[in-house]
Design brief:
Number of strands: 15
CATH superfamily of the largest domain: HAD superfamily/HAD-like
CATH architecture of the largest domain: 3-Layer(aba) Sandwich
Strand content: 15-25%
Bound molecules: magnesium ion
Largest sheet: 6 strands, parallel
Radius of gyration: 20 Å
Distance between the termini: 37 Å
Number of domains: 2
CATH class of the largest domain: Alpha Beta
Number of helices: 11
C-alpha cells in the first residue's frame, strides 16, 4: 500500500532554530524509501526555495521547492483557478508577493478585485488603504486563519488572522480564509502528491501539531490525521475537540521504523500510548491524559479565526 505524507513544519520538524530530535532521520527515511511527501505550512512569508534552504541549514539537505506547499501558493492557485485575470492589493511578505506574481495576479492599489492578507507586513497606512479598497468593493481574503504564530516557546507574533480581523471589524465584511484547515489547501496538496508518484497514493497521512488546522483539515478532507506532541498541543487538551486525530505520537521520530518497514500500526499501538504503559508499569491504560507532558497550556484565545 502506497502512503503519501503531508507534513506540517513548525512544531513537527523544528521549533525556533532547533530541529526536533529524529526529524532529520524521519525525512531521510522518507527519501530513502521513495515515499512521496510535501511539507504543508500556513506560513505565507517564505517561498518554497527559502524553506528548502532553511531546512538545509538546520541539517536536512537534499530537498527542493517541489517538497513545499505554503498558504501563499495556495492563495495564488485559488485566485488563478477561480478568478483568472483578477487583481489584488496585498498586505504580505515576499513569499506571497512571489506566488501571486508567478500566477500573473497584478498588484492594484486603486480598484482591486481582492485585498489579500498574509503575514506581518501590516502598517496602519497599509491597513487604511486595504480598508478603502474593501469599501470600494474588493473582497477580503487571508492566506491563513492563524491569529498568532509561535516565535519561540515563550514568544508569539501576530498572524494573518489577526490582520484580517482588523479589516473585518473596520469594514463589517467577513474574510475568506485559505491555508489549513481549508479544504482547498488539502485538495491542492493531494494533487501535488499524486503528481509526484504518477497517481494518487492509496492513503494520505497528515502529520501536524495543531488541532484547529492540521488535524481538523485532515479529518474534514478524509485523510489520516497524526498529531505530534512536539509542538503547540498538550495532550490534556486533545479531548476538548470534536474532531480527533487518528493517532497521537510524541514526535515524528516515532514513525521512522514504520516508514522504513512500510508497515503502519493502528492507533492503539501508537508509541505514545505504549510509552505511557511501560512507564507506569501496568497495562491497559490507554487514555490520552496518561502521557506525561512537561508544559501546562497557556491561556490565550484560539489560534485560528
Ligand atoms: Mg505547526
Amino acid at each position: 500500500m502506497k502512503t503519501g505524507y503531508l507534513i506540517d513544519m513548525d512544531g513537527v520538524i523544528y521549533r525556533e532554530d532547533q530541529l526536533i530530535p529524529g526529524a532529520a532521520d524521519f525525512v531521510e527515511a522518507l527519501v530513502a524509501s521513495g515515499v512521496p511527501f510535501v511539507f504543508l505550512t500556513n506560513n505565507s512569508a517564505p517561498t518554497p526555495e527559502d524553506l528548502a534552504v532553511r531546512l538545509r541549514h538546520l541539517g536536512i539537505p537534499g530537498l527542493s521547492s517541489r517538497h513545499f506547499y505554503t498558504s501563499a501558493l495556495n492563495t495564488a492557485d485559488f485566485l488563478s483557478e477561480t478568478h483568472p485575470g483578477c487583481t489584488a492589493f496585498v498586505i504580505g511578505e515576499g513569499g506571497l508577493l512571489a506566488a501571486l506574481h508567478e500566477q500573473k495576479i497584478a498588484n492594484d492599489a486603486i480598484h482591486p478585485s481582492y485585498v489579500v492578507v498574509g503575514e506581518v507586513a501590516a502598517s496602519m497606512e497599509k491597513l487604511a488603504k486595504a480598508h478603502a479598497c474593501i469599501e470600494r468593493g474588493a473582497r477580503l481574503l487571508a492566506t491563513n486563519p492563524d491569529n498568532w504564530c509561535p516565535v519561540s516557546n515563550s514568544e508569539t507574533r501576530p498572524g494573518a488572522g489577526a490582520t484580517a480581523a482588523f479589516l473585518e471589524a473596520s469594514t463589517g465584511r467577513r474574510a475568506y480564509y485559505l491555508g489549513k484547515p481549508n479544504g482547498y489547501m488539502f485538495y491542492r496538496a493531494r494533487r501535488l502528491l499524486a503528481d509526484m508518484v504518477g497517481g494518487a497514493p492509496d492513503q494520505i497521512v497528515m502529520i501536524g501539531d495543531t488541532m484547529e488546522t492540521d488535524i481538523r483539515g485532515a479529518v474534514e478532507s478524509g485523510l489520516y490525521a497524526y498529531l505530534v506532541l512536539s509542538g503547540s498541543t498538550q495532550i490534556e487538551s486533545v479531548g476538548d475537540y470534536v474532531y480527533q486525530p487518528t493517532r497521537v505520537l510524541k514526535s515524528v521520530a516515532d514513525l521512522i521504523e514504520e516508514v522504513k518497514s512500510g508497515k503502519p500500526s493502528n492507533r492503539l499501538d501508537s508509541p505514545v500510548f505504549t510509552h505511557a504503559v511501560v512507564k507506569r508499569g501496568r497495562s491497559g491504560n490507554r487514555h490520552q491524559t496518561d502521557a506525561e507532558h512537561p508544559q501546562k497550556p497557556r491561556p490565550r484565545p484560539p489560534m485560528t479565526r
